[in-house]
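Run Big-1 domain-containing protein through structure prediction, thanks.
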Amino acid sequence: MKKTALASAISLAVMSGSAWAVPCDVLGPTGKPIAPFDKEAGVTCSTTTVEGQFILDKTSVKAGETINLAILGLNTVGEVDRFGEDGGSILMAVISTTQGLIPIGGEAMPAQGSPNSGQTPSDSIGNGSFVNRQGQPSANPDDYRTTRVVKLENGNGEINVYYQPNSNPTVGGRITVKLQERESTANGGIRVNTIKEVVKDITIAPPASNPFALNVSEFNYGFNDTAGQMDTDPSDGIHGQMTAGAVGAGAEVVVTALNQRAGGSVNLTLTPMGKGAPITTTGSMINGTATVSLPSITKAGDYYIKAEMTFTGEDGATKTVSSVGLDSVDKVTVISTGAPKALSLTSNKERITQVGQGAAIKVKYLDEYGNTTTNRAGGSYTVSIKEANNNAGSMTAVLDAYGNHDTIVLGDQAGEISVATGVLSLAASATGLSTSSVVSLNVVDKVFNVTVQPEFAAGSMVIANNQVVAVHVDKDPGATNPVSIKNVGTDEASEALRDPTTGTVRAVFKKVGHGPYMVSDRAGEYAQILVDGATIIPGTPVSLEIRNAHNEVVDSVLTSLLPGNTGLQTVLPEKAVRLQDQHGNPVTGAPAGKFTLTSAVSGAVVSYPAGAASATPTGYETVLVDYPVAAAGTGETPLTVNLTAPGFTKATTIKTTLPEIITFKFIKTYVEQSTIPVNSKVAMSVELLDQNGDAVQGTNSIRFVVNGTEGDTITAPVVREVMADGSRGDIIAPNRIINFDGGKKVFEVNGGQTTGQFTLTFVDPTGSVESAVRQFQVTQELKNECTPTNLAGCKTEATCNAVGGAYAGKVCSAPPPIGAEGINSKGEPVTVPAGTVFKGGYSINGGPITNPAVSADPKAIVKIVGSVEAADAHVGTNADVLVLYAGVPLGKELEVQDVFVLENSGASISPWDGTVEGIGAFETKALGKYNVFNIFETPEGGFGVEGELYLLLAYRLNDGVVMYGRDLLQLKIDDPRTN
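Sure, done. The structure for Big-1 domain-containing protein is below.
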């Protein structure tokens, strides 16, 4: 007769004896191969874990927080299965997340087929952990996974999931957990059976966005920046130093918030103290700390450092908190590279005469970014300064390492310039350095003789906006060509016509500063003359401003709570009060007057330095405004600053907000469910919250109380504190005082080995906060509903079979999977439709269904069960269920002629002829989703003989397609008294 591929496969299977046997690579609890067979005898892996339960501490988190997940493997009675791996299987959980990140824990990546291997060679089975972590676990993205495989230990597994500050609250998070049994296969691979799969949705709230206050707390220069400097005394503000350009890259600024739970985007601005555009960058704050990387900065100079956070307040308004205060300055100095690359050439004048006062010529080193620099390596350069058309003699400057050289003046001696009029084009060059840009110097044939009037000579002082700096000019440049006088220090210029009678020119200046002064004419016909003159000083103060440490005008100041919430206080440094004259010049010095501060809050007390009745704006002390506790939370209030000085009538009003007193208001405990299995370990979070639901800052003492509630039967529950690194503290004794730092702790709660009830209570010793009570029920029962994923809830054989379970010993359980293969009517292999699952095994004396079964006594009651979970495409299709059976004496090699066909639900047995056509139907039926077959059950007295039993399960469709279990059902019947 013609044999098909199925027949060949069956023949090979039965003749090879232990076809389904898989070597176990895991030893039993004694460290020896699992009795009674060793690996070579063909022991296969199995587990008694039939169900999973997954319990979170929190299902709703703020972005930037971490949650904990307990992974529990349960046996058929609903307790954590401490011995689920004694059959050789490895129990593991595959955890996948959206938005959440799982720390990898540093485990190695084992080879496929090894005891710690996951589903693929890239999987890694490690031990996860609960943690009490504030902030980001690691800045290295390689330290995270969105999928991890975690090994269970004694039926318990742990993992923690971190949600970044930029997690999307709208989308939320999702955690998918698969509890799986891993078996090794004979060819060195693995087989994975899913025991339970659950999806958990996580609600993500935005991070605590109100920082309360910001502080630039640290500056770190780049790793390669040998000239970088950190501030060793940040008490007066951060003062850092970094090198311009790539060498200085990698510098960081650390920003901290008063609110240790604050998170969100931090905007960092570096503003040049001189001219130039601000430099902005951003960073993420996590649990009150942000480390912001600075970009490469190429322009040397001093930069203010300002950190800002914008958030939405409880009133819905957008608010911004800045790190810039009224007193201390945070700044970074960017220095040049110290490596000259080019030269710069400058002249203090644009016009000179052939022989006269002349122009001062200066040469400087430039680094690669155009910054004036020194030669940090040491040594000097000889620089040649030449005129392009040889209209001026060559000049030489020797620049030392600091960039200094002797004074060079061009045009003060006869013979230096060969033309009476024209343009000189000067450039500086030196070996190894790029030539400077060209400096154009006009040579004219007209020159003034300028004399400063005695009352405006150098050393005298004149008040801004008065007739000041009068000079005598000997020549009249003309009625339409006024004389220009420019204050070189402030770059302010004033023009006036020369008095034709006296020859006097009077300039009016509004900016405070001192000379020298450059005298010239508007038309540019005369050589420029440099003279020394009076210093311009400010006028009488007419206005008052409050400026912060970055010299920015502010209209509000901060009011803070005093330690212990004993009151509120506004601090106004004297130097923050700035007086100005009518032109905006700062007015400083003792003659400016005294200022006073007035609050509109009843009971507010203003304290001036040394008990005075007023304060000096130029002082370095502070003025304090203390408010009574009753004023807390009243919101915005004005402060009036007034000046006692002649002619001053314009007081300034600023505002301050009186914050509410933050008080410890609630104790909250978090665990997803309080009903936990025997032998379980779950994570419970406990938080101390203020009236706004934010974590309480600082340290608070809480009493830990055990039991005291009606129905408590477990007298000594085991509770340990979980540390930031996942380690555990000692068992917490009842009535112990626990210090909460930062408002949160995580505890490991152990269900223990007996069922019952216990209560954990967290008590505020002061009695001002309501206690938090968490009552735990420790159970030994699975959920009552009968489902494919909760077979233990199926209490009858009919309900058990209906969901794909097998009923034995009054317990519904899932038979072991036996793989699936398929062929068509021509004997050609076909793809097994997705969802096709063959299962089967033996129950001995009412025990769990296993395959291969451990040795059975000849007198044992044996039940043989097979099941088929049909693919959707085959559900409702008529099919012949096929069962092949072989029984041989112990030690006899199995041959094809030993195989029989079970027909008519086992009522008849006939020899198998080796063909598919020769297999009669065990049962013909329309396939359902779940199809369970009680193939055989021995009567009282068992088989009565020793031997080895093999069965193969299949089904045949009308078109000839056959699906069959890849692995045989095996049982060894062995009398231990005779062997």
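Residues 785 and 793 are 5 Å apart (CA to CA).
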